[in-house]
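Below is how a single chain appears once it has passed through the pipeline. First comes the sequence as given, then the structure the pipeline wrote out for it. We keep one example in the README because the format questions we get most often are answered faster by looking than by reading.
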Amino acid sequence: MEIEFGNDDVASMLDAMKQEDEAGKYSSKYWSPKKEGITKIRFLPKLKNFGESLFYQKHMVHYVNGRPYMCLEQTLTDKDGNVHQAETCPFCQKSKQLYKASNGDRDHPDPAWKMAGELRAKERYVSRVIVRGNKNDKEEDIEWKPEFYEFGKGIREMIMAAVESGEYGNPLDLKTGRDFSINKKGQKKQTKYDGSMFSGNSTPVFNDATKLKALLAELPKMEYKQLVEFETAEELTKVLKEYMSGGSSEDDLEKETTASSFDEMDDAIYGSKPAKAVEAEDEPADDGEDIDALLNSI
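Resulting structure:
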């Protein structure tokens, strides 16, 4: 039997191996600040045509074996328009069982406490945002294109504190609102966002009518339910069995995924009251009357 393995075979093999590696990775649906330092965004208000009462959607998520899973113990409308009624969640059941086994003792020598924490559902919030200076892979300006941003309790508490203070007016208003500076420090589970704050200056979301029109055209395509996808209890049970038998830990998960969820996993900053900041000058006004008409039409 003749065996031949040429250069074409090597290239084909490498391509197949790369595809195999990529197939096991989770691709996030959300934008997130990749680098440390300041990234400016603009939180966008709720959309009346979707019947929203808040500018964000809250959901509970489990992070297991390399990817996030929607907790089954919540009622949400999914991407197909079906209402998922809260039901028993295998991850939640196991987490409670492990907490009980460790007697609620953080210093318990058994790994049950840590595993319980890894399996518990985390509160996450999703909002539409504009990312200042946003560019695509070709370095083209796509600042006008809204993104879904998932964040934790810390950022939510900052926003609430700012609104409650009354010092920032309505920071979500497209015409008189304020940008938000995300101050990212550290990576992975060590990420902190203290020092993040709303701008001290009130500005329109855009002074460029072309960008504003493009934004308004994109928003109707961004209903939160399109992000919601539930696995069945049977599927989650299979994932849980793999985890309990020595599958990926949360540390492995953080190395493998690019999901923004894990940047704020610990939610280390609760209730930090943002201070006023002096922002750089905004770009000069353009097509003022057109801008006003567009903003007033929303």
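The first strand starts at residue 37 and ends at 43.

See the next section for the split statistics.
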